[in-house]
Each structure stands twice: as C-alpha cells, then as structure tokens.
Design a protein that fits this description.
The chain has 190 residues and is mainly beta.
C-alpha cells in the first residue's frame, strides 16, 4: 500500500521540479544589445555593445521570471573608431565615471508560458528610468554541446536619451529617441 502512495508523490515532485524557475547565465558570445539613434534627421547611426553579462530566471510553465543584463559601455561599436572614442569619452558616456549600463526587469503578459514583454528599468549615465521591452521571440531547447537547457530571445524597446542626461547633438537637431534591441542567448547554470 505504501508503494502505491509513493508513485503519485514521485510524479508530483517530478512535475513540480519541471515547473520550477531555472537560472540561466547570459552567453556573452551570443548576446549583443544594439541600438539605433538619429543623426540630425539625415540618417540613423546603428551600433552594438560587444560585451555584456547577466542572468535570466525563467519558469517555462508560467512564463514568470526576471532579467538582469549588464552592458559594458567601453565595448560600444559603431563601426567607426572615431565615433566609438567620442561616445566613450567625457562628452557622452564618460565610461571612466559610468562604465556600464544595466537593464533589470520582470517577465509579463505570458501566453502559454511565454512572456510577451519585460517590464523593467534601464540604468544609464547614473540615472534609472522605466523601460518596457517587447519580446518578439523566445525559444528554449537542449544545448547541443553543453547538454543543458538554453534559451534565446529577441526583445526591443525605445527610450529618450535626454532623460538620462545624454543630450549631445540636440542643438544640431538630433532627435533624442533611441531604439534598443537586445538579442540574448543564455545557458542554464549547472
């Protein structure tokens, strides 16, 4: 009789273990936050941050979880060395004073266990402001080499850089809106 009671308990604990939140380490070689910003209404400058790190906690059963991404501002890459040097210097990001930007948020709007957005805050230039990212894609599967679960996502949002004290170029007609896109891949911790 005791063994009959043990089977449902084991099945319940296995199901609960599958539904538990999993912590994932962001893979810096497959994660590149990118951005697009106006250049005097003439064109858009696009760039990316080549170094980032962080964690994602995700419960695939409920769609709940959180994101914590740290972006190294010294790794900014516009594809133009002079622009990179200007952006990291004291006239803009001033990476000696503010070496990184962070985005922290929680998953929201889950449909079938998949969140539709990340509601959070961006910290940039010593200022923190609300930012919501729309999730365009999120997929998890076993990693073919590490044999652990891994997830990938693509999310985007926008912010006004002047709210972060970064108004360089405004007097020349630069628009202050910046489009942010974060493509991320993360592997479950061992």
């Amino acid at each position: 009789m005791n063994s009959l009671l043990l089977v449902p308990a084991l099945l319940f604990s296995a199901a609960a273990a599958q539904a538990a939140p999993v912590t994932y380490d962001i893979d810096p070689s497959h994660t590149y936050p990118s951005f697009e910003a106006d250049h005097m209404g003439m064109s858009h400058w696009r760039g990316k941050l080549n170094k980032s790190a962080g964690t994602i906690i995700y419960d695939k059963a409920t769609g709940a979880g959180s994101v914590d991404v740290k972006m190294d501002l010294a790794s900014i890459d516009f594809g133009l060395d002079a622009m990179n040097a200007w952006a990291t210097g004291d006239k803009f990001f001033n990476v000696e004073k503010n070496p990184s930007a962070t985005f922290k948020g929680r998953f929201d709007g889950a449909k079938g266990g998949v969140p539709t957005q990340v509601v959070g805050e961006l910290t940039l230039n010593g200022k923190t402001r609300p930012l919501t990212l729309t999730i365009h894609q999120l997929k998890c599967m076993p990693h073919p080499m590490f044999k652990r679960d891994f997830c990938g996502a693509d999310a985007s949002g926008s912010f006004n850089r002047e709210e972060f004290g970064l108004a360089a170029g405004k007097d020349y007609g630069f628009k202050m809106d910046v489009a942010l896109r974060i493509q991320v891949e993360a592997v479950a911790k061992e």
